[in-house]
């Protein structure tokens, strides 16, 4: 039996997600503003593994009693298709975006036998004046910089994770669906262990695998572009005028499922059937990703 | 697996190498422990544990050694896992090469306690003699990891040639604390003698600002805000809450031993 949320029909389909590698780390600073600035730089150009290499975003903001050095901060989650990509991207981003940002410090944010280097690589910036300090079983690097010392933990954990959880909001207008998206991502934002890496948490450029152009391995999904309804077959009616997709990466499948439930519910309850035609999800027929989030099960 | 209780029955006829009372003691039965050798130092006579101690099992997992143990040297040598409690004063080289677990001494230790300790935790309710954590004879490095908390005072050259780990001394300290320090952290709550940090290459010594530093060996202390101090404060909170609180405020920091080309540091906190 078809299900509805706040009067908005939800299609009987599933979101197809993939195994990924993830890491988590904490940036603290003298003020939350500096920590946000460092995080914004570090998470820049980190929306999709298709061209950015990693998907990275702020998981949550942290109060002083939640951080190792008693200062305000942010927790950042990063996802990649391979550990090699994480190992390449994280130290470079940390070096250019956190090391450079006044008053900041960088700490591990998750455990895990496999490790991603932080201070282990950044220490060389100290040019021999860096100081190693082991406290409470953890190793830190103190790198002299112009505002004092940049304190950076040796490394952070790397864990198996899931990327590409998603749902699509089919709107009667761009205004309605944009608002629904904002509501959904704001509802997802406080949840632990998940990020929505696209700008504002949503993307309009849902893609399909491959392209008519050689060498391009992803291209626009014409079946979901309302302006092409006269040219290609589309799985929705003429009342749909705009579609946005919320993409969710998470440390566990359960966290993604919960984020999908919270996001879909919030969007539907805010905009309702007057603004949304339906909710659906993106998949590749179940052939590419081993994690299938069936909307009916997620919303049960 | 139950714990063990070793109660000293009578003082031994001389100085004893008690290295056997360490290592894997926690994994042995009372009968096995009773048969362990206790060589007399400077004498070919060899005693057995049963000659000196009444050994019995305990209901809990701890190993407890009890008595006036000042003639027993190298007690708790190479302790690896579990908890060892020693009740009474002990001889030299207590907890030598400690490798893991927790060793708790309810008493005083003589010279060379925790020599070349590698890991684990050592808590001493009393005082310790000279050269806490020194290298083994003929070796270059002292403590390479772990944590020591001394509630009383420490003798001369505490942390000699230490290269990793943390020593917290809640009382006063003799001369040349942290001499030839390679790395690691030494925290002293009381007064220190002369030649603090002499020859230190790296590492951190934390002392009250009432202690004077040699102007030949150290730079002039500068007021600094260090994030690492907050982490160390958190680490010190259970053992030394007053120092932990002091480290949360501004500290002054001097670098040295400059006369030895060192770039270690001494933090001076307001008591």
Walk me through the structure.
- The complex is a heterodimer of chains A (300) and B (271).
- Chain A contains 6 helices and 18 strands.
- Chain A is elongated, with a radius of gyration of 21 Å.
- Helix content of chain A is 23%, strand content 36%.
- In chain A, helix 1 packs across helix 2 and helix 4 (174-188) packs across helix 5 (253-271).
- By secondary structure, chain B is mainly beta.
- Chain B has a domain at 111-269.
- Chain B has 4 helices and 17 strands.
- Chain B has helices spanning 30-34, 49-52, 227-236, 241-248, and strands spanning 3-8, 16-17, 37-39, 46-48, 53-58, 63-66, 72-73, 83-87, 102-106, 121-124, 144-150, 164-169, 185-188, 204-208, 222-224, 251-256, 264-269.
- In chain B, the strands form 3 sheets. A 13-stranded mixed β-sheet of chain B has the order 5-1-6-8-9-10-11-12-13-14-17-16-15. A two-stranded parallel ribbon of chain B has the order 2-7.
- The chains are: A alpha+beta (300), B mainly beta (271).
- Chain A binds chain B through residues 28, 68-71, 105, 129, 131-136, 140, 142, 148-149, 151, and chain B through 145, 164-166, 183-185, 202, 204, 224-228, 230-232, 234-235, 248, 263, 265.
Write the layout of secondary structure elements.
The complex is a heterodimer of chains A (300) and B (271).
Chain A: E1 3-5, E2 8-10, E3 14-28, H1 32-42, E4 55-62, E5 73-80, H2 83-98, E6 105-108, E7 114-117, H3 119-122, E8 131-135, E9 138-145, E10 148-153, E11 155-171, H4 174-188, E12 194-195, E13 202-203, E14 207-209, E15 218-220, E16 242-250, H5 253-271, E17 276-280, E18 291-294, H6 295-298
Parallel strand pairs in A: 6-10
Antiparallel strand pairs in A: 1-2, 3-5, 3-6, 3-11, 3-18, 4-5, 7-11, 8-9, 9-10, 11-16, 11-17, 12-16, 13-16, 14-15
Helix pairs in contact in A: 1-2, 4-5
Chain B: E1 3-8, E2 16-17, H1 30-34, E3 37-39, E4 46-48, H2 49-52, E5 53-58, E6 63-66, E7 72-73, E8 83-87, E9 102-106, E10 121-124, E11 144-150, E12 164-169, E13 185-188, E14 204-208, E15 222-224, H3 227-236, H4 241-248, E16 251-256, E17 264-269
Helix pairs in contact in B: 3-4
């Amino acid at each position: 039996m078809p299900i509805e949320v706040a009067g908005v029909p939800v299609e009987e389909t599933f979101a197809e997600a993939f195994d990924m590698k993830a890491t988590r780390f904490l940036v603290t600073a003298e003020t939350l503003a500096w920590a946000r600035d460092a995080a914004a730089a570090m998470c820049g150009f980190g929306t999709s593994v298709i061209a950015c290499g990693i998907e990275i975003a702020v998981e949550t903001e942290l109060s002083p009693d939640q951080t190792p050095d008693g200062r305000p901060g942010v927790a950042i989650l990063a996802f990649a298709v391979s550990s090699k990509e994480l190992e390449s991207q994280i130290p470079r981003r940390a070096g250019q975006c956190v090391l450079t940002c006044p008053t900041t410090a960088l700490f591990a944010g998750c455990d895990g036998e496999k490790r991603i280097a932080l201070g282990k690589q950044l220490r060389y910036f100290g040019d021999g004046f860096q100081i190693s300090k082991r406290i409470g079983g953890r190793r830190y690097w103190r790198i002299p910089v112009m505002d004092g010392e940049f304190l950076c933990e040796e490394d952070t954990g790397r864990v198996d994770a899931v990327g590409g959880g998603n749902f699509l909001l089919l709107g009667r207008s761009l205004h309605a669906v944009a608002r629904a998206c904002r509501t959904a991502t704001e509802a997802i934002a406080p949840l632990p262990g998940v990020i929505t890496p696209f700008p504002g948490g949503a993307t309009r450029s849902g893609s399909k695998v491959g392209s008519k152009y050689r060498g391009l391995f992803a291209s626009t999904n014409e079946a979901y572009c309302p302006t092409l309804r006269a040219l290609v077959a589309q799985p929705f009616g003429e009342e749909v005028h705009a579609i946005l997709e919320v993409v969710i990466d998470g440390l566990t499948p359960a966290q993604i499922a919960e984020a999908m439930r919270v996001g879909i519910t919030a969007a539907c309850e805010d905009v309702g059937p007057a603004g949304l035609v339906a909710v659906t999800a993106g998949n590749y027929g179940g052939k590419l990703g081993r994690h299938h989030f069936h909307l009916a099960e997620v919303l049960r | 697996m139950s714990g063990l209780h070793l109660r000293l029955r009578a003082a031994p006829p001389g100085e004893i190498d008690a290295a056997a009372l360490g290592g894997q003691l926690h994994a042995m039965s009372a009968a096995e422990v009773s048969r362990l050798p206790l060589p007399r130092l400077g004498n070919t006579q060899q005693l057995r544990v049963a000659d000196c101690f009444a050994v019995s099992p305990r209901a809990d997992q701890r190993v407890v050694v009890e008595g006036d143990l000042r003639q027993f040297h190298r007690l708790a040598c190479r302790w690896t896992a579990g908890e060892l409690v020693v009740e009474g004063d002990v001889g030299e080289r207590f907890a030598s090469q400690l490798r893991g677990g927790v060793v708790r001494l309810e008493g005083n230790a003589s010279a060379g306690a925790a020599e070349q300790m590698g890991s684990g935790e050592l808590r001493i309710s009393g005082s310790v003699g000279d050269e806490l954590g020194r290298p083994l004879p003929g070796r270059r490095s002292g403590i390479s990891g772990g944590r020591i908390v001394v509630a009383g005072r420490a003798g001369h050259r505490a942390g000699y040639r230490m290269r990793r780990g943390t020593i917290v001394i809640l009382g006063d300290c003799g001369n040349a604390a942290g001499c030839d320090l390679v790395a690691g952290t030494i925290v002293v709550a009381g007064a220190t003698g002369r030649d603090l940090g002499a020859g230190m290459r790296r590492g951190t010594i934390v002392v009250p600002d009432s202690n004077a530093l040699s102007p030949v060996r150290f730079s002039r202390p500068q007021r600094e805000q260090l994030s690492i101090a907050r982490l160390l404060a958190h680490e010190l909170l259970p053992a030394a809450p007053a120092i932990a609180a002091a480290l949360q405020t501004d500290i002054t920091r001097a670098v040295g031993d400059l006369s030895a080309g060192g770039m270690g540091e001494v933090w001076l906190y307001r008591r």
